[in-house]
Write a structure and sequence with these properties.
With about 300 residues, this protein is an alpha/beta fold. The protein is built from 14 helices and eleven strands. The mean pLDDT is about 95. The protein binds ligand TUI. The site of ligand TUI has 19 residues, from strand 5 and strand 7.
């Protein structure tokens, strides 16, 4: 299956792994790239020198292209942006903001720039700023989200820009990939599916929660603070949502979530931790290797198209 995205990125299959905070480290990224997709290292809130180490470790594990995701709320984003150029990374995706100020530096260095957007307006702005493609991410996604669904967002973005569009949010199998193609996308990005991968470093308790999750088991915290985050419902989200309802201020809410993603991913605290996951978690029934995940998705999608 050759598409504008497989050609642009020099990859075999139109499948990109999300740049997930704490989860998307070098082993997962290398496994996805070695399986023919595009692996991403999620810089999240990491200091630039940690990101540099992750990039070097990933290079040692794969000769295939891989990318780095820059989370723009990261206070170290500027330094991370420079490390990407210094280390010769081929692809960068961005999330949770507008990457315009880094675009010139990245383009000059020949880095392919793919901002994640949650609206048509942002997609158009990014194309004008020189983006090579965009990820149109629906609100079915895990983590920080916008407010439009993938089904509605993707075709509207496709009509509004001339660069290739990658669909994200609510996609975890070959039906999702085939459907995204029908909407005009040239590839998909999946996060939740890869959280449950064998190569993912996510704690077994978190993976078990994901695999047991049903369609309605996620909720969205942070709508009152302007940073809506989708995660699996637990004691933390119940307390958070109660505080939000009572009109708690930002600092009070922050106390509940400070370090909570690390707690879930590394320590396996599924009670007080933040279990970021998309609405498609209910579709995921087993822990497979990245190679198995990608092979199954491609076989299913090709049988449908
Ligand atoms: O970025 C993501 N997903 C994320 S980032 C993250 S780390 C985090 N944790 C807690 C609170 C906030 C962040 C966890 N998951 N997805 C890509 C994405 N980007 N979704 C939505 C957006 C977005 C939002 C606003 C993109 C651009 C944008 O523009 C705002 C502006 O500057 O106009």
């Amino acid at each position: 299956m050759k598409t504008d995205i497989t050609k642009l990125l020099g990859i075999e299959y139109p499948i990109i792994q999300g740049g997930m905070a704490w989860v998307a480290e070098h082993k997962l990224a290398a496994a996805v790239s070695n399986a023919g997709g595009l692996g991403l290292i999620g810089a999240a809130s990491a200091p630039a020198e940690i990101v540099r180490e992750e990039i070097r470790k990933c290079k040692a594990l794969t000769d295939k292209p891989f990318g780095v995701n820059v989370m723009l709320l990261n206070p170290n984003a500027e330094e991370v942006a420079k490390v990407i150029v210094e280390e010769g990374v081929k692809v960068v995706t961005t999330g949770a903001g507008n990457p315009a100020k880094y675009m010139e530096m990245w383009k000059k260095a020949g880095v392919k720039v793919i901002p994640v957007v949650a609206s048509v307006a942002m997609a158009v702005l990014m194309e004008r700023a020189g983006a090579d493609a965009v990820v149109a991410e629906g609100m079915e996604s895990g983590g920080h989200i916008g407010s439009t669904t993938t089904m509605a967002l993707v075709p509207q973005v496709v009509d509004a820009v001339t660069i290739p569009v990658i669909a994200a949010g609510g996609i975890a199998d070959g039906r999702g990939l085939a459907a995204a193609m029908m909407l005009g996308a040239s590839a998909v990005q999946m996060g939740t599916r890869f959280v449950a991968a064998k190569e993912s470093i996510v704690h077994a308790n978190y993976k078990e929660k994901l695999i047991k999750a049903k369609d309605i088991d996620s909720t969205v915290t942070g709508t009152t603070t302007g940073h809506p985050v989708r995660c699996i419902r637990n004691k933390m989200t119940k307390e958070y949502l109660k505080l939000e309802k009572e009109g708690a201020d930002f600092m009070e809410l922050e106390k509940l979530t400070l370090g909570s993603l690390r707690k879930a991913v590394i320590e396996g605290d599924v009670v007080n931790g933040t279990l970021m996951a998309g609405q498609i978690a209910g579709l995921i029934k087993e822990e497979l290797s990245c190679e198995e995940i990608i092979r199954q998705i491609m076989e299913q999608a090709e049988s449908l198209m």
